């Protein structure tokens, strides 16, 4: 009975997580559905708060240089993950621990993030109609993968990895190597932007609406996010239904315990 109750609680938690994830995709889908298509040079005619969707090339006079791949860009994020190995097992006496049980020995592997960063700058979306400024603070970014490599701990390249303070000991753990991953939106990349217009005629998120900045097309977003939205709803309904059945089974077991 208690196992059924625990199972029911876990299933209900899973349903809640699925609904939360669906809400995030729903917010993005609603933004795209409500946005009015405009060319970059026309956005200045929109009224403040109006949702617009534009496509064009990303340009900036303040372009960033990404830390790992040194790509000129308007946005980047990177993460460095350390892979390590450590001994497992405790103090032993003749192959057994102090409680008399046989000790589990061997090596245990793990991963931990040792460095990460995310940066962006205001930029322009341009085409032949003109340009519109985008302030991407707090935006939902989708960037291309520009680096995905693994460096062993004995590699000569480790000292040249920005943001990494190499310490092969790490409290007794043996470092095996580092995963370096970086995503970026290089300058000149064709982008799809959806979000509200501010009082200056720029595109910028506000309290009521978010901002989408992605290298993917609108049709690709609708197809991908629409499917995820539906799948999360189905997962939530299935988990909630199974949770109800688990609670019902626990209730039946409790009643039968009186007979």
How do the helices and strands line up, and which of them pair or pack?
Layout: H1 2-34, E1 36-37, E2 51-59, E3 64-65, E4 72-88, E5 92-93, E6 96-97, E7 106-120, E8 123-127, E9 130-135, E10 140-142, E11 144-152, E12 174-186, E13 190-196, E14 203-204, E15 212-214, H2 218-256
Structure commentary:
By secondary structure, the chain is an alpha+beta fold. The chain has one domain (2-256). It is 28% helix and 37% strand. It contains two helices and 15 strands. It has helices spanning 2-34, 218-256, and strands at 36-37, 51-59, 64-65, 72-88, 92-93, 96-97, 106-120, 123-127, 130-135, 140-142, 144-152, 174-186, 190-196, 203-204, 212-214. Strands 1, 2, 8, 9, 10, 13, 14 and 15 form an eight-stranded mixed beta sheet that branches. A hairpin with a 2-residue loop joins strand 5 (92-93) and strand 6. Helix 1 runs antiparallel to helix 2. It starts with a helix and ends with a helix.
Low-confidence stretches: none
Global shape? flat
- The average pLDDT value, as a whole number, equals 86
* Biggest sheet descriptor: 8 strands, mixed
Helix fraction bin: 25-40%
Strand content: 35-45%
Distance between the termini: 15 Å
List keywords for this structure.
259 residues, alpha+beta, five-stranded antiparallel beta sheet, 2 helices
Compose a concise summary of this entry.
This protein is α+β, with helices and mostly antiparallel strands and 259 residues long.
